[in-house]
Please model this.
Amino acid sequence: MKSVRICDATVKSTVEGPCENTVAGTPVEKLRVCFDNAAGNYKPGKKFFECGVVDEVCILIEGEVIITDDEGNSETYVGGEAFVLPAGFKGHWETVKPVRKYWVQYFNK
Model:
């Protein structure tokens, strides 16, 4: 299978709507599905976030987020940084400045 250049990928579908589990504000998610990849846009707000059974790698293109786990530990990430949310992660995703990101979810067996 040939690799896919993300910026050249054809957008198969776009979904926009309110974030699930919103805690504060009115954050809106906009997802563009490109092959097996997606780029999302997130507006300021705060939501409860749970990874479930998959690890998620996030690469922020622009914006700022604060990720706080269920024990109160928090990290701030800005455009140009990448991070991993491990399977089973529970906490809050707060979008401080509008975000564009690439993300990949995968099963870590």
